[in-house]
Structures are given as C-alpha cells and as structure tokens.
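Weekly modeling sync, notes
Attendees: S.R. (lead), two postdocs, one rotation student

Agenda item 3: backlog of single-chain predictions. S.R. asked that every request posted to the team notebook include the full sequence so nobody has to chase files. The rotation student volunteered to paste the first one in as an example of the format we agreed on. Action items at the bottom.

Example entry:
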Amino acid sequence: MNYLTLPINALYKFDIAADSKILVFAGPYLGYGLSASQKVKLDGVEVTIDDTVKFGSGEDDIKAFDFGVNGGIGYQFTNYFIKAQYNLGLANMTNTDEASIKNTNIGVTVGYMF
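Predicted structure, as returned to the notebook:
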C-alpha cells in the first residue's frame, strides 16, 4: 500500500561539535492511501494482482485514511543531514471488527538545507 504521509514532529538538536548536531524527533502523522497492489509468490513464481486491494468503506476494502505516531534520530553536519525514522500506525485499516491491519514504516532521509 502506498500512502502520502504528513508527519508533525517536535525536533530537538544536541550540539556535539562546532558544526555537528544529533537530531531527535517524535510526533503524530496523518496518511492517505494513494494506491495498492498485492503480490503472490507460489513455487518461485511471483504474480502482481492489482484488483484485489481497494480503498473504500466496503467490507473487503481498506480504509484510505491512516494515523499514528513516529519518531527518529538523525545527524546534521553544517547543512547536510541524515535521518532514520519509524512510523507506527494506530488506525485499524479494515472495515470490520473481525480483523485488524495496521501500517508500519521505516524510512531514511538524506538532505541538504539551503
């Protein structure tokens, strides 16, 4: 499942040298489902099935709106940075009470600040 997520983080920077900082951040996130597909692998043969996973409110559909918490750490040197984060979904993505599906995500970001 592919989601567009908006993290809303509080960030703290620890100075460790003149131009170096350790970053620690955490906060909630909101997400919205954009697309989904399913891959099935049987006896070494992998098949992608695009019709089986759909966003919606039907009993067999997955909810499009997601929310949860995220946190991470990073390192900043002058204007360059690298961050690692983990998102933990809190919303049950199914439309039934009989099952529970929750999203998780691990991300790495490398960037330059202008």
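Discussion: group reviewed the output briefly. Residues 59 and 97 are 10 Å apart (CA to CA).
Action items: rotation student to repeat for the remaining queue; S.R. to check formatting next week.
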